[in-house]
Design goal:
By secondary structure, the chain is α+β, with helices and mostly antiparallel strands. It has one domain. It has helices at about 25-40, 40-45, 100-105, 110-115, 120-125, 140-155, 190-205, 205-215, 230, and strands at about 5, 50-55, 65-75, 80-85, 95-100, 115-120, 160-165, 180. It has a 6-stranded antiparallel barrel. Strand 2 and strand 3 (about 65-75) form a beta hairpin. The longest helix has 14 residues, at about 140-155. The protein starts with a strand and ends with a helix. The model is unreliable at about 10-15 (pLDDT under 50). This is DUF1264-domain-containing protein. InterPro entries: OBAP-like (IPR010686). Pfam families: DUF1264. Belongs to the OBAP family.
């Protein structure tokens, strides 16, 4: 099985948003500033967790994209995440992900369950991270403990992801239909050490350390309907 090639060059903070269109005019900068001082942005203010990981195209798993997630809890069993191509102020919104508990997952029809992926490998391998709030400042033991505790919950969740903007092929605007995405479930599905290592350099993190910190997290049994991209690949 050929390993996936991941696009993570766009995840460094770009000087521009790399999208087609004229630069924002002074008129709109002024109007946006004024509106921002008056309007209430409650839905986005509920975002409480930032994550970084890699998504693979379900229809073409040799393609994958590094993705920054900004998530809010709808309730104890469901989260919703806005996905961006970078953590910077010029980031492009490229998709959405929903995460649900195993209990909710099992209530879904079988065909629906096949659209969802597990997070076990993402967590246990050290691929999935909560970037430190101060960038390249080395995370403290307290931050490591917070992240590890959060991963104890995420490891059980199932995710459903659609990307709306195929930035990895150079699209300057969102083109085509939404693309169902999935995540990796085992070593050898993409060049893990290279891609995750390059990501770690930018975020000041270390997947090896995270893997060690998470070794005591118990791996849940993954439902047979999940992770269908890799199930089909054997």
């Amino acid at each position: 099985m050929a390993t996936a090639h991941c696009d993570n060059n766009a995840s460094s903070i770009p000087e521009t948003n790399n999208a087609s269109g004229e630069p924002l005019s002074t008129k709109w900068k002024v109007l946006d500033t004024g509106a921002g001082m008056v309007q209430d942005f409650s839905p986005v203010k509920n975002i409480c967790e930032g994550l970084n990981a890699f998504h693979s195209y379900a229809s073409e798993p040799s393609r994958c994209v590094e993705t920054n997630h900004y998530c809010a809890h709808l309730n104890e069993e469901m989260r919703q995440c806005i996905l961006y191509d970078s953590p910077g102020p010029n980031a492009r919104l490229i998709g959405v992900e929903y995460m649900i508990s195993p209990r909710l997952y099992e209530t879904l029809p079988s065909e629906e369950r096949k659209l969802w992926h597990s997070h076990v490998f993402e967590v246990k391998s050290g691929m999935l991270i909560m970037p430190h709030p101060h960038g390249l400042v080395p995370p403290s033991a307290a931050w490591d403990a917070i992240e590890t505790k959060a991963m104890e919950d995420v490891v059980h969740l199932y995710g459903k992801v659609y990307h709306l903007w195929q930035t990895d092929r150079g699209d300057k605007i969102p083109l085509g239909e939404p693309q169902l995405m999935t995540s990796f479930t085992a070593e050898g599905q993409f060049d893990f050490e290279k891609m995750v290592g390059e990501r770690d350099e930018r975020f000041g993190t270390d997947w090896r350390k995270k893997k060690e910190l998470r070794k005591e997290i118990k791996e849940p049994e993954v439902h047979e309907d999940a992770d269908q991209t890799w199930a089909r690949k054997g």
